[in-house]
Amino acid sequence: MLFIPNIIFGVLLIFGIGFFVKNIKKIKRNIKLGIEVPVQENSKKRWANVARIALGQSKMVRRPISGFLHFIVYIGFIVINIEVLEIVIDGLFGTHRIFASIGSVYGILIGTFEILALMVFVAVMVFWLRRNIIRLRRFMSSEMKGWPKQDANLIIYFELLLMGLFITMNAADVEFQAMNSGNIISGSVAPLLEGLPLHIIERTAWWLHIIGILIFLNYLYYSKHLHILLAFPNTYFESLKPLGLLKNLQSVTNEVKLMMDPDADPFATENNGDETLKKFGATDVFDLNRIQLLNAYTCTECGRCTDECPANLTGKKLSPRKIMMDTRDRLEAVGKNIDINNGNYKPDGKQLVGDYVSSEEIWACTSCNACVEACPVSINPLSIILDMRRFLVMEQSAAPSELNNMMTNIENNGAPWPYNQMDRLNWNNE
């Protein structure tokens, strides 16, 4: 009977971590559905981006209020979860505050944890007010209704609950309070619990705290807060090229080289053993590369990209945030399809272009890179938009009439204007 709590704790820990690992494997499998792309060298610069953007939160603080509050929550959760190590050891071996033996340092650590817990509690409450009372514009867009709004609020409630349980656990711990060290916040809460069964309250809060952490860990897979984990690889794999530099399609480049080579046989084909025809652009998640799919999973749904988008600000339908959310939704739908069909994808008659993202959204983009610059975790919605646009133009010839006219004029006249080359300087005679 003595070891039953330890066994229960071990089972919960194994189950929680095991389920988390299973979901992470699903994410990895789904990302690998995309096209593999070679990653540029310069690992030094890439690790610098991870340290500066993912760890240092350099892009978050560009908006001081939300940036500061997010930084508090970020630091708070990193530091406070150090105590999870103590909880795990206590739970597995039946000890109680095993690190208390280090003396005064322990009090300093727990005191720091409690101050950060209170700061996180306050910061999260402000986040809730901004979303539900103040109702900031970027949280009120159409794509944020339903589950996205519920998801954001659920995370807030999770964080409030975990911080509250942490303080309650400390306040009800008679041995810890007797140390009179580190109880900076819980010491003020402890008098409110006088006359109550403190041991039961402490044990209940302790169990709920660790169970809540395990639930939170596994909830990340279903939440936008997956960026807590994926922000690090996403910033590592971001493009190191200038934002205004657009990639060329190698297949198109090869065709142009063939046309420009006077000695080339236009009817000859490369015998490379690949009988599949490469699609121009992207119509579904299978046509996107793995970094783009990683971007979709990393999206925080913060709306900074949409807030900076000039097309969206002028009333156009385009929302870069929605593009990333739609890509992730389609990728998740494909993943569920694979799960149902025993590891094989069965065509479902849907695709990213048309069923999730409309052509109106695709053509509203001005290619200005404002969304890319604004993203706090280095997501590139523009690359996905451009690949879908290339599909519409090169596979379906579905470009707007104005663009078709311009391309025809360039082909015939060498310029976007409908004037013969010999007539271009006629204005000089007027």
What does the model show?
There is one protein chain. Helices cover 60% and strands 0% of the residues. The chain has two domains: 4-236; 250-266 and 276-413, Fumarate Reductase Iron-sulfur Protein, Chain B, domain 2, CATH 1.10.1060. It starts with a helix and ends in a 17-residue tail after the last helix. It is an all-alpha fold. The chain has helices at 4-31, 43-55, 64-80, 83-93, 104-132, 147-172, 174-179, 186-189, 198-219, 227-236, 250-260, 290-298, 304-308, 310-313, 320-340, 352-355, 359-364, 370-374, 381-394, 401-413.
End-to-end span in angstroms? 103 Å
Name the structural class: mainly alpha
Helix content: 55-70%
Low-confidence stretches: none
Mean pLDDT: 90
The H/E string reads: HHHHHHHHHHHHHHHHHHHH
Rg, Å, rounded: 28 Å
The count of domains is 2
User: Using DSSP, what is the number of strands?
Assistant: 0
For the report, how would you describe the main beta sheet? none
Number of helices in the DSSP assignment: 20
Shape designation: elongated
Strand content range: under 5%
Layout of strands and helices, then pairs:
Layout: H1 4-31, H2 43-55, H3 64-80, H4 83-93, H5 104-132, H6 147-172, H7 174-179, H8 186-189, H9 198-219, H10 227-236, H11 250-260, H12 290-298, H13 304-308, H14 310-313, H15 320-340, H16 352-355, H17 359-364, H18 370-374, H19 381-394, H20 401-413
Helix pairs in contact: 1-4, 1-9, 1-15, 2-10, 3-5, 5-6, 6-9, 10-12, 12-15, 15-19
Provide a short characterization of the protein structure.
With about 425 residues, this protein is mostly helical. It has helices spanning about 5-30, 45-55, 65-80, 85-95, 105-130, 145-170, 175-180, 185-190, 200-220, 225-235, 250-260, 290-300, 305-310, 310-315, 320-340, 350-355, 360-365, 370-375, 380-395, 400-415.
